[in-house]
Amino acid sequence: MSNMIFINLPVTDLAASMAFYQALGFENNPQFTDQTSACMVWSETINVMLLTHAKWRTFTARPIPPSNCSEVMLALSCDSRETVDAMNSAASENGGTADINPAQDLGFMYNRNLADPDGHVWEAMWMDPAAFQPEQQTA
User: Which region is the signal sequence (predicted)?
Assistant: First the structure.
C-alpha cells in the first residue's frame, strides 16, 4: 500500500464544505463519510477529512482557530494554468474566497491562493515539467 496523507479540517457546515470541495474537483468517499465527517479524495494518496467541530473535539482539546487566521497553506498541483484559474473560480462560486493572496506567475510556475468556507488556505499551483528536464548533453 502506498503512503497516504489524510488532512483533517474542522468545518462549521459539513454539507456546505462537501459541496465546496466537490466543486473544486474532490470526490467523496462514502466509506469514510457520516453525519460528523466526510472523506474528500484529491488523488489515490491525498484525502481531506472534513470534521464537524464536535467530531474535531474528540481528537484534540486544542482550540479551533478563527477563520481569519492562517496556520498552514496546503498546495495542490494542477494540470494547467487553466485548472488553477478554474479552481479559484469554483472557490468563489461555492462559498469560498479566491485570490486571498496575490497570484504568482513565474513563467515556469503559476499559483493562486483560495480559502474554503471555514478559512482553510489552499494554493492551486501549476509547474511546467519541461522547465525541470535535465539538459541534453551533446557528444
Answer: none
Return the pLDDT at 135.
Answer: 61
Q: What is the number of helices (H) and of strands (E) in the chain?
A: 3, 9
Mean pLDDT over 26-38 rounds to: 97
Verify that 5 and 45 share a domain, yes or no. yes
Q: Angle between the 81-93 and 14-24 helix axes, to the nearest 10 degrees?
A: 160
Does 51 share its domain with 8? Answer: yes
pLDDT per position as a tens digit, 75-92: 999 999 999 999 999 999
Which residue reads 496523507 in cell numbers?
5
Sequence-distant (6+) residues with CB within 8 A of 45 are 2, 3, 4, 5
Nearest to 27 by CA among 17, 18, 16: 18
| Domain end call among 59, 84, 107 | 59
Position 137 scores a pLDDT of 52
Domain that holds residue 15: 1-59
Question: CA 75, 81, 82, 85: dihedral to nearest 10 degrees?
Answer: 50
Task: Report pTM.
Answer: 0.88
